[in-house]
Amino acid sequence: MKYIIIGLGNFGASLAQKLTEEGNEVIGIDRNMTKVDATKEKISHTICMDSTDEFTVSGLPLKDTDIVLVAIGEDQGANIMTTAIIKNIGVKRLISRAINPLHEKVLQAIGVDEIIHPEEETAERWAKKTLSA
Q1: Which of 99, 105, 133 is nearest to 119 (CA)?
Q2: Which of 40, 89, 90, 99 is within CB 3.0–4.6 Å of 46 for a Cys-Cys bond?
Q3: Nearest to residue 96, comparing CAs of 88, 106, 22?
Q4: Would you give the distance in Å from CA 17 to the centre of its chain?
Q5: DSSP letter for each residue of 67-101
């Protein structure tokens, strides 16, 4: 499958690496060149760009991508703007990361296909794992 992951922080970079290891084609995008450099050997492709620039985003191979995942976590505004731009362009499946309940409501209003909460989901999985040990 083909993925575009926007935001190469801890979550985005880890996910991009795992998907690449599983044989998927992954384009990892971040506006921070340090993060792009740190992942360029671990994932299929990396691009340093501002995902809130509609013109630049429109140059990505979005129509040929199975899943676009907006993993931006620290900058809610950039997450929302990026998600809205991609939703407006249109993709097969759009997943975005929510930071808090209000952020989730905004993403729902935009109409993303799925909203993820990596920290909560990991905490829940670990709570179950430690309770069953």
Answers
A1: 99
A2: 40
A3: 106
A4: 12
A5: EEEE---S-HHHHHHHHHHHHHH--S-EEEE-SSH
Mean pLDDT of 105-110: 96
Q: What does pTM read for this prediction?
A: 0.92
CA–CA distance, 102 with 74 (Å, rounded to integer): 15
Which residues are within 8 A (CB) of 14 and not within 5 positions of it... i.e. 6 or more apart? none
| pLDDT (0 to 100) of residue 122 | 82
Tokens of 114: 């799925």
Tokens 């952020």 locate to 103
- Amino acid (one-letter) located at 73: G
Pick from 89, 82, 84: nearest CA to 58: 89
Cα Rg, the chain, nearest whole Å: 15
Could you give phi then psi for residue 120, rounded to 5 degrees?
-65, -45
Written as six digits, the tokens of 121 are 């989901």
Phi, psi of 68 (to 5 degrees): -110, 125
